[in-house]
Amino acid sequence: MNMASATTISYNRITRQIKSKVRVFNGLMIAANNNNWEAQEAKTKEYTAVWDTGASSSAITRRVVDELELSVISRGTTHTAADSKETTIHDIHLWLPDHVIITHCAAICVDLNLPDVDLLIGMDVISQGDFSISNYQGNTVMSFRVPSQACIDYVDLINQQNKTLTLSNFWKDF
């Protein structure tokens, strides 16, 4: 069984964009003691990432490819709402906040058109675990854990709460 890990990113306001610092590795990573991962003969650098549930694949900019000297593992076509472009695909390893490790992520190289953002975390990564966003009391909080631990079902939760409230009101009348 894989050891679970999680990260939480909080904002003291409502935000429309979840960003985090992510360390990207281009080389081999091995598990040392207690599932602590170490890069071996790898180039690594920290970049700003945006979490994007609307993207099926993770993406990196040409800057990441050049700085980490990433090898091309495949070529393909990237489709966006605006157009389609030929692109390269690169194998990367991600070290997300709070030591959440994602290995062998196939990232496409694209122009993200986002200031100071060089990585887009897409559903290929997000779908490996549980992902939630709340905006409780005007503060946005995103939490992500791998592997998946349980089904998060707000309808079921509300139905259970409403059932409890209905039963407590019933007994109050007696």
Secondary-structure element series: EEEEEEHEEEEHEEH
What's the name of the CATH homologous superfamily? Acid Proteases
Strand content: 35-45%
Radius of gyration: 20 Å
> What's the overall average pLDDT, rounded?
88
Could you say which overall geometry the principal axes of the C-alpha atoms support?
Answer: globular
Give a quick account of the main beta sheet: strands, pairing sense, barrel closure: 6 strands, mixed, barrel
Q: Look at the structure and give the CATH class.
A: Mainly Beta
How many domains, in number, for the residues?
Answer: 1
- Kindly report the spatial arrangement of strands forming the biggest sheet: 2-5-10-6-9-8
CATH topology: Cathepsin D, subunit A, domain 1
Number of helices: 3
Q: What is the helix content?
A: 10-25%
Helix and strand content put the structural class at alpha+beta
Number of strands: 12
Terminal residue distance: 51 Å
pLDDT below 50 for ≥5 consecutive residues: which ranges?
none
CATH architecture: Beta Barrel
Label this structure with key terms.
174 residues, alpha+beta, Cathepsin D, subunit A, domain 1, six-stranded mixed beta barrel, 12 strands, globular
Give a concise summary.
With 174 residues, the protein is an alpha+beta fold.
Note down, in words, how this protein is organized.
- The protein is α+β, with helices and mostly antiparallel strands.
- The chain has a single domain (5-172), classed as Acid Proteases (Cathepsin D, subunit A, domain 1), CATH 2.40.70.10.
- It has helices at 62-67, 123-126, 154-172, and strands at residues 5-10, 18-25, 28-31, 37-40, 44-51, 59-60, 74-79, 84-96, 100-109, 119-121, 130-134, 141-146.
- The longest helix is centred in the last third of the chain and has 19 residues, at 154-172.
- It starts with a strand and ends with a helix.
- The model has no long low-confidence stretch (mean pLDDT 88).
